[in-house]
Design goal:
13 strands; about 30% strand; about 240 residues; 7 helices; globular
């Protein structure tokens, strides 16, 4: 009797591509995942992570509310950047520093995002998020994610502070720089990151990128793992080979 291969159920997740207008053109903030991580170790990625139960409660009437909430929370946890306002005003570097205890509690799962909002008096800036894509990990992978990708302009009065746990290195890259470093073998880029960077190559500023890439809704893109000439190749539907 043949046994059917078990396919892992994708875990809901979200990612923010933080953008700024740099001296050399459009730049995005990226991190290198720790070698100890069980998913995408050593990969150059955008901040993000999986949806937590508490994320479901913040925007219950929005079908993508838990993805948007997870995107904001994970970006704060990983790189210390928070898309939020207090009294209608954008947060400053000193505001983020004052929230360090909350950041630690979120990372340790000692508090959820709703408790953070209530206890800090913050209103999350969901209007700053711009949906651009949805990627699903190939069925052949033992751990899979269903990830929504959002663009957001970097809040200019904040300073990134990577957690040095999940994000062991971090910095600003033009899309071309990140792709070139990957081509030289300096960093690993998984398909969603690679193709997002390729898309960003077409734009010269944050406003252009948001205008050109933002979507009201998106269809899932699920790469396929195939064997060819003894090699493992990942094909992405609708995309040409690099």
């Amino acid at each position: 009797m043949a046994f059917k291969e078990q396919i892992a159920t994708p875990i809901d997740a979200a990612t923010i591509i933080l953008l700024r207008d740099g001296a050399g053109g459009l730049e995005t903030y990226m991190t290198v995942r720790a070698a100890t991580m069980d998913f995408q170790p050593n990969a150059l990625v955008f901040p993000g992570g999986k949806v937590s139960p508490g994320d479901m409660e913040v925007l219950p009437d929005d079908p993508l509310g838990h993805f948007k909430t997870a995107a904001i929370r994970e970006t704060f946890e990983e790189v210390g950047v928070l898309l939020a306002k207090r009294g209608g005003q954008h947060l400053l570097e000193q505001d983020i520093t004052a929230l360090s205890t909350w950041r630690k509690q979120l990372v340790a799962h000692a508090a959820n995002i709703g408790q953070f909002a209530a206890g800090s008096g913050l209103v999350f800036d969901f209007e700053a998020l711009h949906l651009i894509s949805r990627w699903v990990t190939p069925k052949a992978m033992p751990k899979r994610f269903d990830t929504y990708f959002f663009l957001a302009e970097f809040p200019k009065y904040q300073v990134p502070a990577p957690d040095n746990y999940e994000a062991v290195q971090a910095g600003w890259f033009t899309p071309n720089e990140a792709l070139a470093k990957s081509a030289r073998g300096e960093y690993l880029l998984v398909p969603p990151t690679y193709w997002t960077l390729k898309d960003l190559l077409e734009y010269n500023s944050v406003s252009e990128a948001i205008s050109g890439l933002a979507r009201g809704s998106v269809q899932p893109v699920e790469p396929v793992v195939v064997k060819k000439d003894g090699k493992t190749i990942i094909k992405v539907p609708g995309r040409n080979a690099s």
